[in-house]
Amino acid sequence: HALVVPSTDPEDIVRHDTDVEKAAMKFVQAFEEALGAQVKDVHTADLARAAGLSDYPGFDLLSLRPDGIKLSIEVKGRAATGDIEISSNEWAKACIMRERYWLYVVFDCATPNPRVIRVQDPFGKLTAKAKGSMVIGAAQVMESGEKCNG
User: Fold this and answer.
1) How far, in Å, CA of 116 to CA of 131, rounded?
2) Which of 83, 78, 84, 77 is CA-nearest to residue 61?
3) Per-residue confidence of the chain (150 residues) as pLDDT tens digits?
C-alpha cells in the first residue's frame, strides 16, 4: 500500500496550476470553435499585440462569432471545484465591457469530464469585494452562469 499526497514544493504547485490553466484554455477554445467562432489567444502581451489589442487586455481569448459578435473571454481552470480569483485588471475590464465580457470557469480539469460554466457580465452578476482582486466561490459561479454542454 502507498499513500500519495500532493507535493508541497512551490515549483510543483506552479507547474500543476499552469497545466490546469492550459487545459481550461484548450477546452474553452474548442468549445467556442465548435460554435463556429474564430478564437484568438491573447493571454500574453505578445499575443494581445499580435491581435491588435493592448499588452494586457484583461482577458484570455477573443472570440469572433460568425454573426460578427466579439466576445472577450476570461478563462479560469480548477483541477476540481474551488474558488477562482479575478485580478484587478480583469475586474476593471469586466466593469467596462459588461455584456461583451464573459467569464468561463472550467471545473474538474484534472478529470476526464471537465465542466464549463460561463457567466456573461460577471461584474454585474457576481459579488465584488471592496479592493484588490476578486475571489469568487464556485457556488456563485454555478448559480450565476449557464452550464455548457461539451
Assistant:
1) 27
2) 77
3) 666 556 566 665 556 567 888 999 999 999 999 999 999 999 999 999 999 999 999 999 999 999 999 999 999 999 988 888 888 899 999 999 999 999 999 999 888 899 999 999 999 888 654 455 667 788 888 888 888 876
